[in-house]
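Onboarding guide, step 5: your first structure request.
Type a short instruction followed by the sequence, for example:

Predict the 3D structure of this protein.
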Amino acid sequence: MSAIKKRSFFAGLFLMKCPNCRQGRIFENKHIFPLNKCLKIAESCKHCGLKLVSESNNGPGINYALTVIVMFLNLLWYVPIFGISYLDNSIYYFLTTSVVVVVLMQPWLMRLSRSAYLYIAVKYQSRLKEPSNTIA
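The system replies with structure tokens like these:
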């Protein structure tokens, strides 16, 4: 019998694994490309069989919160390196840089927000049944 490696909550969330078993993938595509299919959620987990349902309301709210967090984190690295002042155009440079960073990260943030919503909605089951196709 092989032991199933237990993933931590944050590892499962950021790797976008099934919230029930933290082994199977949530999304059909492993990566964000092609962009037109990056948000397609799998019908069910291939590892534990949990039916994955896309969110109806809370995903965009979580996405908004993640976008604000990225803007704040952008401020944390931008200010010590370049500085911001109201006496010159540095505020415009900061805003332009922040918008570019957020737009480039948006596909990943949208996937992370859907994954986060599933982790909120589905409880983790640490004791799963052994797969029936194992050889004893």
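Each response can be followed by summary notes, for example: The chain has three helices and no strands.
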